[in-house]
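Troubleshooting: if your tokenizer reports a length mismatch, compare against these two reference records.
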Amino acid sequence: MILPLLETDLVDVMEACIDGRLDQVDLAWSNQSCLCVVMASHGYPNRYHKGYPISGLQQAAQEPQTMVFHAGTRLDNDAVVTNGGRVLGVTACGDSLQDAMTRAYNAVGRIEWTGASYRHDIGAKGL
């Protein structure tokens, strides 16, 4: 993930793109590390079931510098449920890759649904 490391206001960047003056924008980037752990439905990319309630999203969001991006989800009444194979992208930043990994996997550990799966080695090669 690179966008969470962008320090320049994204609206300013998009407006510059629209106006054809992107070359005039000074892009500023954080020196932190950032990574994303994709949480998927069991069976993805082949057959998987939909409609399982997802718990722990609010607890995961409490992890510092961590964001949960929804991909294969939908609202069913007031509950967030699975609705695809790649369900969530749990993204965390930190002062080091290890710090970002720890935050991301702490957040992932708080999120549950029937058949949730994810890789346990994201970022390991970078260490």
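Reference record two:
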Amino acid sequence: MSLCFLLDGYNILKKIPQITDYKIKEDRPSFINFISRFHPQGRNKAIIIFDGYGDEQLKYVKIDVLFSKDISADNYIVKMLGKKGKKCYYCVVTDDRQLQFRAKNSEAKVLSVGDFLNPVFKRMKAGGRKMHQEKINEYSKEAQEIKKELERIWLKK
């Protein structure tokens, strides 16, 4: 049985300051792209569940996006956990304590938003440092070339 992550969409979205502009509908695509690009779920499937209605059902590689319509995303997730004949083992990602409790009662694994996203942020930070160092090296080379050119012109070297 494979592992499938159920992501409490808005609960997670609010915890990512890098992409949250507090305009929930406008932030959804950024969040979906973030998950699609950085794969915090690893090679496992992820299903992002948002409250309410969305424009469409979206599918990405190993990511599904669902809208709970007339029930809360929490109830929708619990309903998914209770389905008979499940094809995968679920891991629910949320900081909502009540949903965490309900998921554990349904024998699902539970991860906090921090535990789910921190490995991604560490990779991003490490990658950012590497890019920063490459820029410094690039600027240093340019600075050396400019210095040599100025010495040649002004000091006639």
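Descriptive notes for reference record two:
- Residues 113-154 form the longest helix (42 residues).
- The radius of gyration is 23 Å.
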